[in-house]
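for the writeup, i need someone to sanity check this before i put it in the appendix. the sequnce is what the collaborator sent (i think, or maybe the updated version? ugh). structure was predicted straight from it, no edits. if anything looks off just tell me and ill rerun, i have time this weekend
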Amino acid sequence: MSLQFLLTALIVVLVPGTGVIYTLAMGLGRGRVAALWAALGCTFGIVPALLAAMLGLAAALHASAVLFQAVKFAGVAYLLWLAWQALKSGGALNVQEDSGETNGWRIAWRGVLINVLNPKLSIFFLALLPPFLSGDPASVGTEMAVMGGTFMALTFGVFVIYGLFAAQAREVILGNARLMRWINRSFAAIFAALAGRLALDRA
């Protein structure tokens, strides 16, 4: 595994996307433990896309417009639901003084779905990994598994940092009702914008 791959993967992970936004929302809305569960869920949500890339299913998804559209619009609907949960009082992503839901498995599952319902992720792996392979057909599977595992480790580490930062900031915003309303509306707008961007994506 090359240094070039590590740097490329780190840059990709550092750029805020849907998973980062979700982890930040959980850190601000529910605290440190929830942020860790969110980071864990988003990380494990990578597994299906990685397996799809390794098995060549990403190419089939790319070739099948119907399948791509079905997964894509399921993802759009889910992101819009998350936007509503940020606005709704007591919603799963709503920042509030009461820490609300603390069911770690449920928090993690939502993070898993964020990545599972993003058809672009498997295609992304199909494009990211091959340039860094050695070219030895006998070791392709092992190399992709190692690079995928490394990408997941980087994802978890970076997301934990984002989440813990957000959890620390939670202590600052609690008690400021106006700021909490602004943050909730901002998260809702971001998830809605991500849903719109996903809806416009093509295979």
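Residues 17-92+99-200 form one domain. Residues 140-173 form the longest helix (34 residues).
thx in advance!!
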